[in-house]
Write a structure and sequence with these properties.
5-stranded antiparallel beta sheet, globular, 9 helices, D-amino Acid Aminotransferase, Chain A, domain 1, 3 domains, alpha+beta
Length: 254
């Protein structure tokens, strides 16, 4: 017996968006519509019983509230290990990076790049000790990296160690706007080749679905910027349909 259109719709994934409107969320909304997915925008930061019943939910969330919302759907979000970047082989990171605590970062005597490993508890940047933000627990984990200059950076949505879509997003510290999310074919090819080298290396552990940012450090060459959780990453100029394909595997049932 064939499946009618109503039954087919019921088994399609449902894109779950937060109450916050963003350009990325709207792009994914339109892509989900083209793909025949269901779409639900949450009405609040607390998931209703009706929203919780959405079939095959695929989450695109903000980092701060993401885990709490996912838990209400019975899902656990995939995130990079907090020590992933310092453990990355040196030929891929091309700079010194350590995982330590915010309290240790307060002892910095020279400028360093300081950021939370996964969350957005404070804005990453170049600091010395007396410039660090107030109100952060001394035991909170942080990454401390030597200061380098990135010439350009590319975002890669990765599923099963395959780059599904890629886009330039930064040039010389300047975020590229939507109309500028374009790169020379040779640039993109170089970025893709390096990203593939990293993700195909068995020494590099990765979640099933993730985001890898790569770029060029002035005077050093191609390097990994960082790994990010796919479910909370900006899409920039990436293909939104390929982003959705990746997001389907960015959370697992608890």
């Amino acid at each position: 017996m064939g499946i009618d259109q109503c039954e087919l719709y019921k088994i399609m994934p449902t894109l779950i968006l937060t109450p916050r409107f963003t350009d990325d969320a709207q792009a994914l909304w339109r892509a989900a519509g083209r793909m025949g997915w269901g779409i639900r925008r949450l009405t609040s930061w607390r998931v209703s019983d009706d929203e919780r019943l959405a079939p095959d939910p695929v989450l695109y969330l903000e980092g701060l509230f993401g885990p709490t919302l996912a838990e209400q759907f019975g899902l656990r979000l995939l995130e990079p290990a907090i020590d992933w970047l310092p453990r990355l082989p040196k030929e891929y990171r091309r700079r010194h990076i350590t995982l330590t605590t915010f309290g240790a970062a307060r002892q910095l005597t020279e400028p360093a790049f300081v950021k939370p490993p996964n969350d957005k508890s404070f804005k990453a940047g170049v600091f010395v000790s007396d410039q660090l933000p107030a109100g952060v627990d001394d035991l909170a984990p942080v990454l401390i990296a030597e200061v380098v200059r990135w010439e350009k950076e590319f975002r890669c949505f990765v599923l099963d160690r395959v780059v599904r879509t890629i886009s330039v997003y930064l040039r010389n510290g300047i975020l590229q706007r939507e109309q500028d999310f374009a790169a020379e074919a040779s640039e993109t090819a170089d970025a893709l080749a390096f990203a593939r080298q990293v993700i195909e290396d068995p020494r590099v552990d990765l979640p099933k679905a993730t985001v890898i940012d790569v770029g060029v450090i002035a005077g050093r060459g191609w390097a990994v910027v960082e790994q990010n959780a796919a479910w909370a990453s900006g899409i920039y100029g990436c293909d939104p349909e390929q982003v959705l394909e990746t997001l389907q595997f960015a959370a697992v049932r608890e």
